[in-house]
Amino acid sequence: MKQWIIVAGLLCASGMVLAQQTETVKVQADSIFISSDTVKVGNFIIIQKNRNLSNRVDQVTNGQHQRINNVITIKTKPHNKKNNQNVVTNWGILDLGFANINDNTNYTTAQGAGYLTTLNGNPVTKNNFNLRTGKSSNVNIWFFMQKLNVTKHVVNLKYGLGLEMYNFRFEDNISFRSNPQPMVFNDTINFSKNKLYVGYLTVPFMVNFNLMPYKDNGLSFSAGVSAGYLLGSRNKQISNERGKVKYKGDFNLQPWRVAAIAELGLGPIRLYGSYSLNNLYKESTGLDQIPYAVGIRFSRF
Question: What is the pTM of this model?
Fold first, then answer.
């Protein structure tokens, strides 16, 4: 019995000596490296007291710590919690871009379909659909977009809901009408402004690759498809003879739009592109025109 008492006394004495020779650092982070002669147990790091503790902790934390007696609390910057969430929502995204049309129409065939109407011996040709490219715009307002983590926040799914709005500004004086029947014709007056507005309620779906998932300004790339439903269209014209007028109607436009979409991002500003996979007009018109757009997207991810 006396032997056990002696052993217990020695262990207690050695523990007191060890406590006097060490100081404790409490770390509020996943991990921190100070030097090779430290011992880490869980979230605690034990440092030999005979070392210059204060200087070494200052070097590691840049002075961002608090010391009370022999306990030093170190505050470090944690990982970005936004990137650690499996589902992240971004509200109110804005796109500003330029729009254009890839015209593959056979106008000899289209003239016989009846949608292109000849008035005063002036038939509608490909040149009449020429756009003012610098003034033909695409503005999109996305109510929200969500990013769903699939693989370690590197591979994600992106989807959302928003409005796609196209303004096609024409160089010539073509006019769109719905009554008495849908048609396009060359007008008899000159317009200072002549544009066709087309708006869609659109759902995009993309696969996103985030190459630096834990950095706010990381490089990312997304690609996928979108489906949009035609909400409205109108032909807005300004001239000296008629003033400012708007003609509303569907103008034989396709009610659905399916497009290939992509975006390239570095931080909050990214480039986007959209290319329609179907015709802007119904097949019965004889027209074969494919809209596309490129621009800048203002988004958090």
Answer: 0.72
